[in-house]
Design goal:
The structure is a single chain. By secondary structure, the protein is of the alpha/beta class. 60% of the residues lie in helices and 8% in strands. Strand 3 (203-207), helix 12 (214-225) and strand 4 form a beta-alpha-beta unit. Helix 1 (2-19) packs across helix 14, helix 10 packs parallel to helix 14 (261-281) and helix 11 (188-196) runs parallel beside helix 12 (214-225). The protein is globular, with a radius of gyration of 21 Å.
Length: 303
């Protein structure tokens, strides 16, 4: 018991340390990627140019970057401000600081000319980068609100489709270990049925990287009509699901396709953090639960 308590205490200190990360200290590229899904096509074009040409950016002017991207100066400024910079000069200063850091960006686009080892490295690096980007842009207040809602909800319904459905199932199984009244649902019809039975003391958790999945939007509308609270985990903080949720937990990923492992690993990390923080909050109960679970599963393993 002492060893487990000590492990949880160390973990708590790590989590508290990570949660203190503020947006102002974030890596420039992390901040740009964190808003990329919510941008227009022209604005995304600017982001891609900035990420691929950081050395050019710090030596260039706003007018030159606008010309290179074939967009207006206003579009470039809009990108800067969307990522939390005061303007183009602020972005340049931030990138210059990042380029002097020992941690440098590694390209992760897969090419048909890449050999096995190169692809291996790029895939792993993409996952590492996505986790770092998400950590550097974490919103502490939103995480704290999410923990409060999860901790006090009478009933929790977690929904997701496709790859996000797998994450919904994993999160539900974690919360069950804490004796939370929780269900997950991947079927669109059953999502609506279960959402219609929620009440004002219940909670809906939507997991959608794009934040634009029509089935989840419909489910969220039904839950809100029943006055249930809501949390969304998404890569698009201005999506319909995000703007209609009470709490938004944003993730960042590198690949252009939402089914990539780099997109899912950040979502898995977010639910792991929520589970561990809840476990720490109710440490003795969590340890007792794990003991009961281990006893029940003891005969499931072959010696």
């Amino acid at each position: 018991m002492t060893e487990n308590t000590s492990s949880f205490s160390r973990l708590k200190n790590v989590l508290l340390s990570l949660s203190e990360t503020e947006k102002g200290s974030s890596n420039s590229f992390s901040r740009l990627r964190s808003v990329q899904l919510q941008l227009s096509d022209l604005e995304k074009k600017v982001v891609e140019y900035i990420i691929k040409n950081p050395e050019v950016i710090i030596k260039s002017t706003l007018a030159k970057i606008s010309a290179e991207c074939n967009v207006s100066d206003t579009t470039v400024l809009r990108v800067c401000r969307s990522a939390g910079f005061e303007g183009f000069s602020d972005l340049k200063i931030s990138i210059a600081r990042d380029l002097s850091s020992p941690i440098r960006e590694v390209g992760d686009d897969i090419s048909e000319d890449d050999d096995l080892i190169t692809i291996f490295h790029k895939v792993f690096q993409a996952n590492i980068n996505s986790l770092r980007d998400t950590m550097e842009t974490v919103n502490k207040d939103q995480f704290e609100k999410a923990v409060e809602l999860l901790d006090h909800a009478n009933h929790i319904l977690i929904v997701g489709v496709g790859p996000s459905g797998v994450i919904a199932q994993d999160f539900c199984e974690k919360l069950i270990r804490l004796k939370k009244a929780c269900r997950y649902q991947r079927d669109s019809y059953n999502q609506l049925i279960e959402a219609s039975l929620l009440g004002e003391k219940d909670l809906l958790v939507c997991i959608s990287l794009s934040g634009t999945t029509s089935d989840l939007i419909d489910t969220l509308k039904v839950a809100k009509g029943k006055k249930a609270k809501s949390i969304c985990i998404t890569g698009n903080s201005t999506s319909p699901i995000a703007t209609n949720s009470d709490v938004v937990l944003s993730v960042v990923f590198r690949q252009p396709w939402v089914e990539s492992m780099a997109s899912r690993v950040t979502e898995f990390a977010v639910i792991e953090v929520l589970y561990l923080v809840l476990s720490i909050r109710h440490l003795n109960n969590a340890l007792d639960n794990e003991k009961s679970i281990n006893i029940a599963l003891a005969n499931k393993h072959v010696n």
